[in-house]
Design goal:
Layout: H1 2-10, H2 27-61, H3 70-94
Length: 95
Amino acid sequence: RLACVLSARLAAPQAGYFLLNLRQSSAKQQAIMNFTWLVITPLFTLWTLLGTVWIVQVMWQAPQQMPSGMHFWILIVWQVMSYLWFCMYGCVGMV
């Protein structure tokens, strides 16, 4: 979120969506864009995968420790949204 806010303040209004423009006009904008694509996005992907591994391990080894009711569904919805997020950014990055 911080990268988007910083980029919005630095970018010209007609520049379009910041993360989709790979030809930034300043070194600061280029650094923020590189940090987002090369650091934040891969780390978020790894964190999501690690969270999925932890959830599966707990479900198999100690299912009584899993949250019950609505908390369980919030956990599942959050994981699904995370996978959709990095799939969407992966598709955007390939274009």
